Amino acid sequence: MENGIYACGATNEAGAIVSTKNYKLKLKDVKQKKHILEHLLAHHKMFECSPGNTKLCRGKRGGISKPATNIEFTSQPQDILANEGESIFLNCNYKITDNTDATEQTIKWRKDGEVLSDSIYTKQHARIHFNAENSSLSINSLLPSDAGNYECLVLNRDDSEAISKPNTVKVITKLKFSPKPTSKVLELNTTGKIHCKAQGAPNPTIKWVSGNDAPLPDHATVENGTLVFDKVRYEDKGNYTCIAWNEPQGEIRATIMANVAIAPQFLLKPPNVKQKKHILEHLLAHHKIFECSPGNTKLCRGKRGGISKPATNIEFTSQPQDILANEGESIFLNCNYKITDNTDATEQTIKWRKDGEVLSDSIYTKQHARIHFNAENSSLSINSLLPSDAGNYECLVLNKDDSEAISKPNTVKVITKLKFSPKPTSKVLELNTTGKIHCKAQGAPNPTIKWVSGNDAPLPDHATVENGTLVFDKVRYEDKGNYTCIAWNEPQGEIRATIMANVAIAPQFLLKPPSNVQIDEMGTVYLHCQPTGDPFPTVQWDKDTKTIDKSDLDNERFQILDNGTLIIREVHLEDDGKYGCTIGNMGGFKREEVHLMVKPSYLSSSGMDDDGFVITRAVMITMGVAATYIILVIILMIWCRRRRNSRKLKLGDMKDNGDLEGEIKTAETEPCLPIEKERTSGQNGLSKKSNGKAKTNEQEKSDDTVNSNKSKKSNSSSSVLDSYSIQRTALLDLIPIGKGEFGEVLIGKAKRSDLKTTNNVKEETNAIATETTVENEKKPKEETKEDTEYRYVMVKSLTKVKDEHAITEFRRQIDLFRTVSSRGVARLYGLCREKDPHYLVLEYTDWGDLKQFLLATSDEVSTTKLATKPIPLNVLQCCGLAHMLAKGCDAIYKAKLIHKDLATRNCIITSKFTAKISLPGLCKDKYNREYYKHRNQILPLRWLAPECLSDDDYSIKSDVFAFGVLVWEIFTQAVKLPHESIPNEQFITDAQNGKLEWQLAKDTPEKLKNILLSCWAQNPKDRPTFSQLVAALGSCLQSEYPKNPEEEANKHKKSELL
């Protein structure tokens, strides 16, 4: 009632009239506005305060509300979660702190800020009951609309009031169809649709199946629950079932019948209007079944038959009205006319019609009808106007001869009242998700909607308003609080609705109940159901969908622990069934079911016999396998002994003929089965060369000798890794430098002659097949300078021999450095596999890893103890290092392998300023800050491409991404980590969402910027290849130093170091 449009109206038994002029009232002075309202409250009983006038008046009591100081509530607020159709009970316990009599208080209940009317309690078969004795409120047969915040309101005689804290009621909507799908006739060769909608909590999933749960035809799809036939065919006729399902409530079904028909068509259409009129008149005269449609007003009227004609004896005396009224007001329409002939007034019938359709008599006769027709003066009155009442109203006068007269239309326009539709309600938002709170309003003109925080404060930065909906991009704990929706338009002002937004963590199971549990009768079973969430979830157990109430339990046998676990002692046969555990809080619900199967006691003994039989059978099978294995070993030993004896006899004959003594020694000492632990570098290398002279005449060889030689060849070819075996004693001065993913990493040195390289292995493999003489075998090998030259080596040990992942990664690294042969990649020097731990021996350098070198030459961070300040690398030297490493990466790419951990810490550099790709992988201590454990894997987080984090998808393109970070490290001297200010968890989220902004180092040459930035493209296909990177880096160096860019970079570095 405050500012707005006002109209004057008068009402008596004869009807009502409303002024045609409206007056717009604006009160600029707040004091004057308050004075007028208080005057209306005191002197005019018709005035009623609207819900928006809570600051000046309350309900229908008048006056200004004030808080009651003598009321203190003793009952705590309740958070109730109940299923639709159940009953709940709300208490209102309070005490009076002064001497006021208890009879002086009036108790009311209100829901979501609106007082519940007394008529709700007094209705017959009312669901909501108010107990005046204890002030409690009970609600039976819960509906989803009953959800909300309920408060107890205590009113004193002095109009002071006290309001309790809100009791929150949440209703789990029952799974049901709305409405239930019905059978339908589909038109042939058209698009056919059969709708199916359902409601429940949570929202159900809908699917369709054919009869007997058969799949749908290929041309039938389901769109938002609607079964759509692309082009209806005759074979589509039949039964179809709509299935609505959600997790806690299961599924419901509705089966319908789909028929197929051809729409009616005209074989012969009426040729002209005259013939059409003749046919209609014939039908009206001879066929009573025919009814005129509303469109045939020119040929027939209503259901009276015949052709309508205008009445000439009726003349309307009232002028048409153009009425503009507010929603909720009353209007009055006149129908004054006079009869110009001698016809009696009782021979006329009066009707009103709206927008061309006659108003049915049932509208007037309904109880509490808003529309009244006064038969005495033919007027029409409409009370409590609705927006749908707007339109053109005409008075229709019918004579007995079927002639009719129609008045000019009375135009009624309704100003829609500004109101929420529906009113926004409090909502629980789930943490770290997108939260939405809806607010819709209607009015004339259409209102503008905005949201503010409590006390009209602005919204948080991550909150926006979209079409009236308040949207939180990522809900946080600090988003909890009050928010106000404001709907406004110019003539009616504004209305407000304040809601409470709570933040919760959706319930999760810490320990789920198992799906099936079998227990013997009279045993004890533990059904676990341990939840987590914020607020802590409520646990509810049910058996066969019937809720288990603690008060109904047999406390001696059943017990529900505080953590949600259900214990059943002395299990009976009737305890068999499905037990469901539902956990819920303000953030939602989750449910798990367990099928408890009780085994009768009379089956227990036989069960023991069955178990004993199973154990006996298992023991017998194990003993049989062991015996078979022993027999096979014995047979193999006998065969080996015979084979060795036959070889001795053959070699004895050869000795008599002057053959080699070394062959006899080989035949006696050669093992029957090659044992990997006995394979040393000496046996694989020089000893193999000295095992005897190859025969030139195949006829002199026995069959056993030929097979023996073939066996040696197959053994050497089957295990390429044996050719890389070296002795542990060859590794000298080993010093640990850290720990890697699968063991300790050491550095040391070894003689060049004791090491294996790709060229050495090839030479030794060829030497096995070449023919040598005994004299050459017996000649002592002279030790050269190369043999005494020492090489730096890095040793990676495999200590986690039972870790499948560690073993697989160890083998992958062996294949990587064994396969790739390039100056830019560290070489494989050998393997020690005769005992644990296994050793992987790689090339190392005198200057060590590249990261320590970059830090040592940085002017910001120096790890050296030099008196003079180190000279940082210049742009040319950085480009030279990147160019050499790019060549190494290109060699890995051409070998169709991937590195997976490219970084300066995994590269090495020599005193000749040559950089190489290696893989120390010191993730446990030295460089543990540069690694992070994610999904039970230790990852070089800040060097990984997005697809590695989200899909564990490693490729050569992910190596290109890491190479871009490696180049960034070189140009920044590796003084800080990439995106060092971002925490690891946030880094993972931003990387997967493409929100990380990679920036090049300050000294990056202009020619390299575009290609280096493309290394960090979100889409792997948009990243360059290593061949392109080598070409770009080489071009950049060539443009500055055209002779030999890498040599020039080396010269510059050497001169600076000197």
From TrEMBL:
Which region is the signal sequence? none
Bias kind Basic and acidic residues: ranges: 695-704
Give GO BP annotations, semicolon-separated.
homophilic cell adhesion via plasma membrane adhesion molecules; synapse organization
InterPro entries per the record? Answer: Cell_Adh-Cytoskel_Orgn, Ig-like_dom, Ig-like_dom_sf, Ig-like_fold, Ig_I-set, Ig_sub, Ig_sub2, Kinase-like_dom_sf
Localisation: Membrane
Topology with respect to the bilayer: Single-pass membrane protein
The UniProt annotation puts the region (Disordered) at 662-719
| PROSITE patterns cross-referenced by the UniProt entry | IG_LIKE, PROTEIN_KINASE_DOM, PROTEIN_KINASE_TYR
State the protein's name. CSON003363 protein
